## 1
Amino acid sequence: MGFLARLFNKLKGPSSSPAEQSIHVTKDAVWVYLKCDRCGEKLALRLRKSSEIQREEAGKQDYQMFINKTVIGNECFNRMQLRLEFDGMYRVVNKWLQNGAFISKNEYESGA
Ligand SMILES: [Zn+2]
């Protein structure tokens, strides 16, 4: 990687690179990368937009769509409670995770 490429990466900042983020929105799905608090297992969760995302009908909120999901990994029975809130463009405006932690895609792919 040349000097200019490195400079460019630096200017983009640490959180703007997709690989540094824990939530990736594709055309038909939302990917969430997380880690179990209990056993440390790393998980990549694929949530289908068509079936998992619900519309917020109340109208007053600062989000328009949301996902509530109980996540259970393969290594233990820890139940992680995930909630994501999106605006009308599927951009995440709020996120919560109980009993687990959000990790970046990089961290997930770096292996166990
Ligand atoms: Zn676990």
## 2
Amino acid sequence: MSTTLDFADPALYENPVPVFNAMREENPVHWSDAAGSWIISRHADVVSVLNNLEEAHASLYKINDYAQQCPFGKGTAIARGIEGALVTTDLPDHPRLRRHTAPLLTPRAVERDYADIVEKTVISLLDDLEADTEFDVLDSISVPLPLAVVTKLIGYEPEDALQLNHWAIDLTRSLEPHLESIDLELSDAAAQNLEDHLRDALRTFGPTAEPGTVLYKLHRGLEEGTLLSEQEAVIRLEELVSAGTETTTTIIPAAFEAMTQFPHVWEELKADPELIPGAAEEFLRFASPSPFTARVAISDIVLGDQAIKAGESIQLAILAANRDPRVFTDPDVLDIHRSPNPHITFGGGIHACLGQHLARLEMRTLLKHAVSRWDSFEVATDRVVRRDRIGVWGYSAFPMTVRDRVG
Ligand code: HEM
């Protein structure tokens, strides 16, 4: 078993867990030529890097002056998107920018403003499914659900929401740790299209947006000067569409795939839906949709027995940390009773995922309705297709059949 990542090996994309596990045990802090980065894989080390951001680490690429070194080329739409994103923005700008969206996504705001829309969307999507007839979970549930929620959050109804999803898929390819494998033109075109579309939405709907929507907050931010340019507002929208769709789109089928491996979990959830919140956390730990996040060292640091120099890039292997036996008993077992469950699927520190409460709400609501309607489900595992990517992984096909509960 290799103890570093071989990005040319298709097995890595089919099932990354064995190699991530081996890497964490035998090579927990190592330099990868292929990624041009250190790869950190133990839970304690990843958490320490996430939390010591202000002291020791800046966000991805910033310290290296991304615009100068950008592998995509200075001035491209991808470079603008990456450079302007919250996740790559350091203090002092980060809190100023995050304030334009964060108040809409607190646990309380999410429950108050989105429980109803998520519930209605889930019911309508599940109503459209026919028992004993195969459907694709992506087309039928896990693509439309987060898209409906994100566009509601932003505050407009795009004519072609699916187009946003296609752009998000192509754009998030640029988050691969192994940049050479990326189709740069495709990613850049997607970033440009998304940027143009969202700028139009901001200009068209911003002035009349409803309070409580992102468009309203951004429009106010531009008027009041808390946003310094229209571009800052457009990137806020771009990051919500790209971060808020593909990740949630992936975790839903990933949960069903995990339950085919551990079928008793479905039976337990049917018998006791109170277990759903704990189960959702465990699905998130077990099948983290973002296996990596990244930082750059801003001072010389020692992690494990390795010296990392200021300016060097660091990939944090969330997927490996979430399976660290030093923190999780029997980490390769899907245990919905796990408590505590300190997974780091949503990152941590000042960059902790902004949409995590929304993602949880979507998962829990879907599971609640699925277990109340369906007696059983069957995944056509031989026809499940995973995308060949590891930055934000995902599926391109997930065929499934369900049998309704009787009575
Ligand atoms: C299962 C679903 C999701 C997963 C696994 C996920 C994962 C992550 C991760 C790993 C980070 C980076 C944390 C870091 O580097 O410290 C992040 C940041 C972020 N996520 Fe999510 N995410 C999910 C859903 C969402 C949703 C639904 C939204 C928006 C509606 C969203 C918006 C964001 C934003 C804006 C950031 C940047 C935050 C910052 O840098 O301050 N995410 N997410």
